[in-house]
Description:
InterPro entries: Fosfomycin_Res_Enzymes, Glyas_Bleomycin-R_OHBP_Dase, Glyas_Fos-R_dOase_dom, VOC_core. Pfam families: Glyoxalase. It is a single chain. The protein is of the alpha+beta class and 151 residues long. Helices cover 17% and strands 32% of the residues. It contains two helices and nine strands; from the N terminus they run βαββββαββββ. It has helices spanning 19-30, 83-95; strands at 12-16, 33-40, 43-50, 53-60, 76-79, 99-100, 106-107, 115-120, 126-131. Strands 5, 6, 7, 8 and 9 form a five-stranded mixed β-sheet that branches. A four-stranded mixed β-sheet has the order 1-4-3-2, with helices on one face.
Amino acid sequence: MSKAKNLQTGHIxxxxxDLTRSLAFYREVFDFEVLGEGMDGERxxxxxxxxxxxxxxxxxxxxxxxxxxxxxxxxLSFQVDTIEExxxxxxxxxxxxxxxxxxxxxxxxxxxxxxxxxxSDPDGIRLEVYAPFGADPADAPTAGAPTCxxx
Length: 151
C-alpha cells in the first residue's frame, strides 16, 4: 500500500543572489504574481504563483552562479499548451537577452513532436518551457539522448 496516494509536485524553491533581479525575470517571463515576500535579516524571499497557487519560491541566500557540475537541480521545466506559447516565451526571453542552450524550439528527441526552449535565469539556473505537441519533427540537438538531459 502506498504511503501517499495522491503524491504531486508542490512548489520548487530556488536560491538566488539578487531577489529584485530574479523577481523581475520570473514575473516577466512566466507572468507570476507575488503571493508573499519578506525578509529575515539580510536574507529576502518571495513566493510566486498563479491564481493563488504557489509555484516557485525564491530565496536570496546564495553567492556565485548555478553550476551543473555539482549534485542538485538539473533544470526546472514548465509545460504550456501550445508551441505558440513556447515561441511567445522565447520572444520575451530574447528581449531580456537571456542565454539559450539551443537556438529556438527544439524537439525532446529524434523526430519528436514535443519540444521547447532551454535557457538560463539570471543566476544561471537552467529552465525549460515546452509544449507536448507542435514541435516540428526534426533532429534533436543531442543524438541518442533526450534533449533535456545533457546540456
